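REQUEST ID: PR-0412
SUBMITTED BY: lab tech R.K.
PRIORITY: routine
TASK: structure prediction, single protein chain
INPUT:
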Amino acid sequence: MQSEQIKDIALEALHDMKAVDVQVMDVRDLTDITDCMLISSGTSDRHVKAIADKVLDALREHDIRPLGVEGREKSTWVLLDFGDVVVHVMHPEDRSFYDLEGLWGDHVRQMVLAQRETHKD
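STATUS: complete
OUTPUT:
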């Protein structure tokens, strides 16, 4: 299955479970590890776990198994690795502290600026 399809199924599951502030980050030009990161929040530990479980179940219905799952025990930050798509479901405090959007966003901005400098006449 293509990464776009995996992303779409995961996004639908995130929205079905009312995940908060869902962000899609295309990182294929930044890393060989994955093509896309989905970052979202749950309103409590229980909500974070329920969201992650829904994503896992939705993809299992399409015979897609994760390469790895981290953090389900504590459920403050659950990482679901589907290879080309990585799903982060985070407690708001962890999301704010680790600021993945800022981390990757800063890198994206730096790459764009570097490319502009390279292509100047």
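NOTES: The mean pLDDT is 86.
REVIEWED BY: pending
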